[in-house]
Write a structure and sequence with these properties.
Layout (H helix, E strand, L loop, with lengths): L4 H30 L1
Keywords: Ribonucleoprotein, Ribosomal protein
GO cellular component, one term: ribosome
Protein name: 50S ribosomal protein L7ae
């Protein structure tokens, strides 16, 4: 018996998306600093 597998998957996906956006933001800011 699993406890809210969909909710967990959704939460994990959200965390992944947030990390991805943070990485993109960090990379872009890092690039603009060196331009």
């Amino acid at each position: 018996r699993q406890k809210h597998p969909k909710l967990f998957k959704k939460q994990r996906l959200y965390t992944y998306e947030e990390l991805k956006h943070r990485a993109v933001y960090y990379c872009s800011s890092h690039l603009t600093l060196h331009m």
